[in-house]
Design a protein that fits this description.
Strand order of the largest sheet: 1-2
Order of helices and strands: EEHHHHHHH
Radius of gyration: 20 Å
Helix content: over 70%
Distance between the termini: 51 Å
């Protein structure tokens, strides 16, 4: 039973919310779908393999056009994982019952989830930067073009994950809230129009988050910022 804190249940001292449960379900479904689509690869693919190949090919071509083929090939699994998880999470808001039942809420409309995604991205960016260019060159990049830029460069790096988390959360939470309000006022036509617009908005937000993440990776792996 969900308590006053918003938790469905607790595991020791850890409270588990509906957004976390939905996140677990999404991860399990994505893992199962990936396994089913790739367990028996064929030269003449079936419907599931064809859909997976089209999705992967489309994403790879998009990132190659932005970052180049070499960098895309190196980090594509990470970019694709972020994009697929975010867009599937976003689209759960269109399903009937989303946000109405305690155990079913849109993960990306929860600040804790988007903050976790941003923190993972932040850690990956600086880890990859340090490993790629070396710690001396990477740290030196924060004092370019001159040492007095150090505070501003550090603030910029700290603001980036905050911006990623708040942008995704704000757009999804706002869209979800507006759609629920419209369902109460105009229960027939307008919600349908909003759901169609939501399809586009959810795609754009997933693409923006992942594209910014990819651009930050590219900046971190170049010695001369």
């Amino acid at each position: 039973m969900e308590g006053s804190s918003g938790a469905l249940f607790t595991i020791g001292p850890v409270e588990v919310s509906g957004a976390v449960v939905t996140t677990w379900v999404i991860m399990a479904l994505l893992a199962l779908t990936s396994w089913l689509a790739t367990r028996k690869l064929k030269d003449v693919p079936g419907p599931m393999q064809s859909a997976a190949e089209m999705a992967v090919g489309g994403l790879e071509n998009f990132f190659s056009g932005v970052l180049g083929k070499d960098m895309t090939r190196k980090y594509f699994p990470m970019f694709a994982t972020f994009f697929i998880f975010i867009i599937v999470s976003n689209y759960t808001g269109i399903l009937p019952g989303a946000g109405k039942y305690k155990g079913f809420s849109v993960p990306t409309a929860s600040l804790s989830v988007t903050a976790a995604l941003a923190l993972i991205a932040f850690t990956a960016i600086h880890t990859i930067g340090l490993k790629t260019v070396g710690w001396k060159a990477y740290l030196k990049s924060f004092i370019k073009p001159f040492i007095f830029m150090l505070p501003l460069n550090l603030i910029e790096q700290l603001v980036r994950p905050v911006s990623l988390a708040l942008r995704l959360f704000g757009n999804l939470y706002g869209e979800e809230s507006v759609t629920h309000q419209l369902y109460g006022i105009f229960p027939i036509v307008l919600p349908l129009i909003m759901n169609v617009l939501s399809l586009l908005l959810c795609f754009i937000q997933a693409m923006v988050f992942t594209l910014l993440f990819a651009i930050y990776i590219e900046e971190a792996t170049v010695e001369e910022h």
